[in-house]
Design goal:
Number of helices: 6
CATH superfamily: Ribonuclease Z/Hydroxyacylglutathione hydrolase-like
Order of helices and strands: EEEEEEHEHEEEEEHEHEEHHEE
Strand content: 25-35%
CATH topology: Metallo-beta-lactamase, Chain A
Largest sheet: 7 strands, mixed
Structural class: alpha/beta
Helix content: 10-25%
Length: 257
């Protein structure tokens, strides 16, 4: 099969295509500020091995400096334009080859081409101050075309901006009882899936981290989004094969034919 996707939890995946590994939004922490990992073991050291890592936006659960520091020297780190200005700690990761991109930019990673695409999300590091850096999604093109949405809401022209893809990695939940604007829940993710019309999809960004002390507050929002996405996708995008993975599980979607 031309592509293999491994979900490590939250928005962190390894996409292996044409023998090249691309890691998305690396987060290898047991605890992050007020969040703790409630499901799944921490990814093993091998999860940090990749030829390239993609960062979709600057929020600390997507751009996590200690996790990025685990990447091997020489790894290509692709980040939104302005990230090194907005997050000075990136400059201390001297062993990584950092490339800043904006929507439409392409970066070659060995046999693959990574294209940045728009996302509808607040791309700032903190919820205050100027917008110095956009939120992005990425399309990884090799033997297959894999779309990693990062964090995004639905937006006009989404399918046209992303283009034709074979596999979609879509966020379907969050890390708290409520999702603000610029997010997909299970139903909206299924609507996006119907618009994008890939051959296969993997739901991500759910069922991993939860605020400390809120275990009893709407726990449904932690446990249910993956199953709900499968149910909504079956109704709205019945031609798409949806693969609901557990933490650390892999799938080789059928994308040919």
């Amino acid at each position: 099969m031309p592509v293999e996707v491994t979900w490590w939890g939250h928005a962190t995946c390894t996409v292996q295509d044409s023998g090249v590994r691309v890691l998305t939004d690396p987060l290898f922490a047991r605890r992050l500020a007020h969040l703790r990992r409630r499901r799944g073991e921490l990814p093993p050291p091998a999860a940090a091995r990749a030829e390239a890592a993609l960062v979709s936006h600057l929020h600390s659960d997507h751009l996590h400096l200690p996790s990025l520091a685990r990447l091997a020297p020489g790894t290509r780190l692709i980040v939104p334009r302005g990230a090194t200005r907005a997050v000075p700690g990136l400059r201390r990761l001297t062993g990584l080859r950092i490339t800043e991109v904006a929507p439409g930019d392409e970066v070659r990673v060995e046999e693959l081409v990574v294209r940045a695409v728009p996302a509808r999300h607040d791309g700032r590091r903190l919820p205050v101050g100027p917008h110095l850096s956009p939120a992005l999604g990425y399309v990884i093109r090799g033997a297959a075309r894999t779309y990693f949405a990062g964090d995004t809401g639905l937006f006009d022209g989404m399918a046209a901006a992303v283009g034709q893809v074979d596999v979609a990695l879509l966020p379907v939940g969050g890390w708290g009882p409520f999702l603000g604007p610029g997010h997909l829940n299970a139903r909206r993710a299924a609507q996006a899936l119907a618009s994008l019309a890939p051959r296969a999809a993997v739901p991500v960004h759910f069922g991993t981290y939860w605020p400390i002390g809120l275990d009893g507050v709407r726990p449904h929002e932690f446990h249910a989004p993956g199953d709900e996405f499968v149910r909504h996708a079956a109704r709205l995008a019945p031609g798409v094969a949806v693969h609901l993975l557990g933490h650390g599980e892999s799938v080789r979607p059928e994308v040919s034919g």
